[in-house]
Amino acid sequence: MTYVPHTPLDRAEMLATIGVRSIEDLFEDIPVDRRVHHLDLPSPLSEMETARLMARIAGENQPVTELASFLGAGGYRHFIPSVVAHITGRSEFYTAYTPYQPEVSQGTLQVIYEYQSMVAELTGMDVANASMYDGASALGEAVLMAAAVTRRKRIAIASSVHPQYRAVAETYASGPDIDVRAIPQSFAGQFDARLGVSTAMASLDESCAALIVQQPNFLGAIEDLRALAETAHRVGALLIVAVNPIALALLESPGSAGADIVVGEGQPLGIPLSFGGPWLGIFAARNEFVRQMPGRIVGITTDVDGRRGLVLTLQSREQHIRRERATSNICTNQALCALASTVYLATVGRIGLRTVARLCLERAHDAARRIGALPDVQLASASPFFHEFVVRSPLPGTELLRRLRGDAVIGGYPLGRDYPDLENAILVCITEANTTVEIDLLVEAIARHTSGASR
Questions:
Q1: How far is CA 299 from CA 109, 278, 309, in A?
Q2: Domain identity same for 263 and 391
Q3: How far is it, in rounded angstroms, from Cα 205 to Cα 235?
Q4: Do 292 and 211 share a structural domain?
Q5: Which of 380, 389, 415, 426 has its CA 20 to 30 A from that of 76?
């Protein structure tokens, strides 16, 4: 059956109803010089021609697997066991949608429940949800939640939190008029990338709803969460921590350190880079705040016959309850990505996850030691770090990365893009996916391109 949106008669009736003679009359209030009179479109293509065009465009991408990549900055290359793709590719999961009828979605609900349990254990928090788009939007939701819990309208966020996370948090906060302020931190010379207690305290008072930090932070440093939690709680503010879940296999959990809300990017847990998404937002909190949590929470109950069943225990979004009582209008559960992370965690297990984290740590520290020993290069921060570190050279960061790219090396992230003090610095990331051969190539290339550059 041919689908024709509107016949000439349909259009004539609509125009008559609104009182105009032609479609052109609808645009008479727009100045002629501001109108687009026609679109300069190419000739139509056949299906075969379209397929060739799309293949050619896709071929312009260069996957990180084809290069020695040391780019992190929020998206990380890790080995993903093949079982993850096999399970997520099954039709009952791959084609499933949001469980609006949860009683007939027991398989999906079980996956979400197991995912929540793993996240709660990993973060050391009481409860986790499964409804966040990515790490940045999870942080935005945490800002709204902290303001609702404390009934305060100001947020202090460390400058060492991911710049894109900070931008998204500010966007989320702009509607309800929440004041998000970055805590000034100096990254000039040889610096400490951690947020000091005195620096944090100077930006906190009793009007502050939350202090936001990242663990490890955007510059790779490991924060002292216990001290920062005490500092925030001293003025009645919450501590929100954005985490790298792989690092939590070695570091003290944020919950144990005193965090009130934990968010993060779940992409390192079995989700490919995919040129930027779709990824998975982690969100966990303490029990006393559960009524203010966004998204969905799956729980276990029993029916009238005593049989166990999984249910959507909490759905606090505006599609399910009265808008004025909703915590969020977020409208996905990212179930497929949550499934991937669940399968990944179940496959590698406790010991495997710790092994992955330890390999990241050891290889990153070995690479940092070798790079820091080069004559014209220095490690910009002496702070303890996990698997990312700041390298300062005589060249602008963008120029050094351009030269490294000529050696088939993606050397890292240019920090001058976000921090004026770090114009000549790059953020280098090492994971278990980086071989010793790749690390040798990186060190040799940096030495070659920076040698004598300062003279």
A1: 9, 25, 9
A2: no
A3: 6
A4: yes
A5: 380
Nearest C-alpha neighbor of 128 from the set 145, 143, 140, 112:
112
Residues 242 and 316 in one domain: yes
Q: What share of the chain is helix, strand, coil (3-state, %, to 5)?
A: 45, 15, 40
The pTM (predicted TM-score) of the whole model is 0.88
Which residues does residue 180 pair with via DSSP β-bridges, in sequence order?
155
For residue 403, what are its two tokens?
A: 């030269």
- Say if 5 falls within a structural domain: no
Helix (H), strand (E) at residue 300 = strand 296-302
Give the pLDDT confidence of 227-245 residue by residue, as tens digits.
Answer: 999 999 999 999 999 999 9
36 within a domain of the structure (yes/no): no
Largest CA distance in the chain: 81
Question: Hey, is 261 helix, strand or coil?
Answer: strand
On the 0-12 / 13-18 / 19+ scale of CB atoms within 10 A, 82 is exposed
For the chain, the straight-line distance linking the first and the last C-alpha, in angstroms and rounded, comes to 74
Range of the domain at 107: 82-344
> Which run of H or of E encompasses 210?
strand 208-215
- Report the distance separating Cα 150 and Cα 252, nearest Å: 26
Of the candidates 450, 427, 444, the residue with the CA atom closest to the CA atom of residue 71: 427
Clarify whether residues 289 and 141 are in a common domain. yes
Chain segment 66-81, per-residue pLDDT in tens: 789 999 999 999 999 9
Around Cβ 350, how many Cβ atoms within 10 Å?
11
